[in-house]
């Protein structure tokens, strides 16, 4: 049945049309009526009618405006205008917008309505047949040799085909003539260049990938040496086959030369940067999926080795370790670096040099990055800094790091964020207090571990101790002793989280030599003992 919707603001008109013919008997199903253009826009989206009988002169959103809106959404149904004599200009506009015909309301009779609907059915049936034919042609195109080849290699590389006899027969049926006695899998990964990198799901990007794969097949590999196809993601895959491998060196030189030719074609012909990941050579096609995973691990090595590279699996096979020092062990150093911007780049560079030298796995590297972002976001929240002031717009910091392709890019991003954080903290401190109080607080934060007193800090800012005490209380809403205690306890909390030092050693490190007094102050300010705090944070 074809679905029909009546759109008219006059109740009696809608009821008259509803009762004029036996809709169901004639192959129609009436949907819920709409009383104006806005109501119709919602209900058309909900009921998806094939035919709309539309009053052209409604209050609010009239029929012309509704048709314009429907045209923007590529509404596939047919529209028949309901009109009065004095709306001829509207009717002309409606016909220009795609209305099929118009009916005069006060002259509407069952026969006229049935004839109009019959004409629409003929058009709908014709379009349906055309669409079905188009679908058939598309289905035929999908069965083209190239599509069949791509589908075969996807199944093969993902481990869905493991019978050597079936694989050999499929290769022959697909008119591929390369040997599968020895195989190598290669993955080409594109690098972003002025937004030109192919994006998964984007039609023009998929077409670009297909063009690149076609040219590689035409100019670099052929049916007797291998096959190249565009994968579902942003990558291009190559499967190369050899009857024999004279030597390891021969194969390495051959693959290096071929990879360079692929990168050169992509750069010169399409203006794109790319890297190639290469698997070991496979001598059993039944296990080719394992070598596909090797190629994936190789191309993931871009993170460690950089862009526009040829990376063989032998270079990344031992990148499987956990970092010797987790991120938490760097937190105290980073907190101190925030008070000395000149050290930020040095500290972060050393962190990432250490990670690279230890050959940690990509998963561990990403975990390290996300813990770093969490640390920065905690500082941002704790100091009341707006996220948009600290992080670049467009992405959350987690997304921004995840989109970066290399460790060097990640390091550069994090250095920039930490430098901004340091500057915002300094600006906030200067703007919040009078200069002498800001200087005093800075001195307290730098020297909290020493034997600080009100008199010592007052002398640093050249103030009388009594005057300084009163001024400090007015500026910070806390007396000097409490403020200093909070600085020391915050430092102690960091040490409890990031080290395994004894509690009494930590007390001494933050300038409180009396262990019992330290525990008392810690519990007053945090609601738990140092041991309870450490246990909770380590869970």
UniProtKB/TrEMBL annotation:
It holds the Pfam family Response_reg. Residues 3-120 form the Response regulatory domain. Residues 438-536 form the HTH araC/xylS-type domain. CDD domains: REC_YesN-like. InterPro entries: CdaR_GGDEF (IPR041522), CheY-like_superfamily (IPR011006), Homeodomain-like_sf (IPR009057), HptR (IPR051552), HTH_AraC (IPR018060), HTH_AraC-typ_CS (IPR018062), Sig_transdc_resp-reg_receiver (IPR001789). It comes from the Bacteria. It is found in: Cytoplasm. The modification 4-aspartylphosphate is found at residue 55. Keywords: Cytoplasm, DNA-binding, Phosphoprotein, Transcription, Transcription regulation, Two-component regulatory system. PANTHER family: HISTIDINE KINASE-RELATED, TRANSCRIPTIONAL REGULATORY PROTEIN HPTR. This is Response regulator. It comes from Cohnella silvisoli.
